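Hi Y.,

Following your request, here is the sequence exactly as I used it, all 153 residues.
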Amino acid sequence: FPPNRHYMAPQTQRTALLDAAQAFCNTFAQQKPLDDVLKHFSEDAVCLEHGLQRLAPFLGREFSALDGTKDYFTLIADLLSYENMQFSDYIVDAEILKVSVVGTARFTWKSTGNSWDEVFTYRLSFNEQLKVKRYEVWADSGAAYLASEGQLA
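Below is the corresponding structure, written out as C-alpha cells. Let me know if you'd prefer a different format.
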C-alpha cells in the first residue's frame, strides 16, 4: 500500500468507495443545494468536463480547488437545468481509489429552452478520506452547443 494510506480490507475499501460515489451522485441527481454537493469534494479538488472550450464555457478547462469546484457547479446551474438524472454501472477500483459511473438525464439549456436526453460518464478519483479529488465528465458537448445556439430540433 502507498505510504500514509490506512489499511482497509479490499472489499471494505470497495464498499466505502461505492458508497461515497453513490452519495455524491444522489446528492447531485436530487438537485440538493450547492453546499451539500461541495461537501463531497476535497479542498484541492479538480473538475474537468472534457470537450472543446469554444462549445460551452464549462468545457475543456480545469476548475481547481474548492472555489473552482463551486464555480464549475454554479456555471452549470446558471446555464443548464436537468431532470430525471439516474446513475448506473458503477465500476470501482479500490486500489487506485477511482469510480466510474454512467449517468442519464434530460438537460435543458436555460436561455434557449432547447432540451436533449443524454448519456454521460463520470470518473471520480477519491482521496483517503473518501472525498472527490478529481471529477471528470464525458458528455455530449455537441448537443450542449446546439442547445446553446437554439439549434436542437
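The chain has a mean pLDDT of 93.

Thanks again,
Q.
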